[in-house]
Amino acid sequence: MAEFAVKGNNSRFKAFFDKAKRGEALNVAFLGGSITMGCHATTEENRYVNRIFSHIQSKFPKSKMTLINGGIGATTSQFGAARINDDILKYDPDLVFIEFSVNDDNNIKAFQETYESCIRRILKFKTAPACLVINNLFYDTGFNAQEIHNEAAAFYGVPAVSVRDYDWPRLQSGELKRDDLTADGLHPNDKGMEIIAMLVNNAIDEMIDEPADKPIAIPEKPLTKARYETAARFDNRNLTPTLSGFCEDKEPQRDITDVFKNGYIAEKSGAYFKMETNARIICIQWRRTINRPAPIAKVVIDGDESKAVILDANFEEDWGDLLALTTVFESDVTANHTVELTVTEQPDNNVPFYLVSVITA
Fold this sequence. Notes:
Elements: E1 4-6, H1 11-21, E2 26-32, H2 34-37, H3 48-59, E3 65-71, H4 77-87, E4 95-99, H5 110-123, E5 130-135, H6 146-156, E6 160-162, H7 163-173, H8 178-181, H9 190-209, E7 232-234, E8 242-244, E9 246-248, E10 264-266, E11 272-288, E12 296-301, E13 309-312, E14 322-345, E15 353-360
Parallel strand pairs: 2-3, 2-4, 4-5, 5-6
Antiparallel strand pairs: 1-6, 7-15, 8-11, 9-10, 10-15, 11-14, 11-15, 12-13, 12-14
Helix pairs in contact: 3-9, 4-5, 5-6
């Protein structure tokens, strides 16, 4: 049984299946957080991503398929909208799965805008990919962001499969045991991964067997402002800012999960970064670290010190450093802006301030 939270329109999936039946080479991509990355799966084969990919391959053995895993831990759809071109779309995907329902916060409406922006960028891409939304859950509370995510999915006729709607009632009744599915209440183990894949694979099988829906047009007017549809990310690979006391990090990046790369490093108070941009939204991506005491910086937009945003790199968690993403300016009007970042406090302990990137929309 498929756990469709949104049944959606199957026309793009039927087109994907037709291409697969003809033996065309196809690209299958996943965009999400640590669960998509495969955290707590014992092997790559046991990740839900690989289980779904293997199932699709088994259904269409004539097609040569390529898997693109765009999962990065502790990231939201806000970052997803900015990196979707580099991590997903540049590979010309034919099918894209989106999973951010435990990373986005259902109580923060802004995440509906960033999530919708991901959907719009996928659906409008030149390969006309099929798209499916996956709703994972916090196993101890049942909480996730599927309400705001699936409202956006339904607006575009994108199917959504809810792991929460399957797991949570069974966890409450005792049919499923929390510790059999997860060690930390968030990341599924191999059994939890198996259930995610089962539900999605059932949905795929159901769409394979059913008649094709009539294709629907992408709504010209979005559900939200969808400003992140134009999101772009700037780091030392595509930006030439004014620097004083910052140096470029030129150490090679292992893969997309090696997140503290291609940015700018400062080791002294007074270090200064400045750039110009044309945007409605400006976000700073930076490192918060468990190695305390850590530096503190401030961001000033257009010279307005009264609205300076403080970036305190002291991270109070213990699981590791955080790839933080802070919105420092927001408007509905696109205009030219100046972004200035200054390190205001630098402890004498060799813990540098790391500016990963600037994201605009």
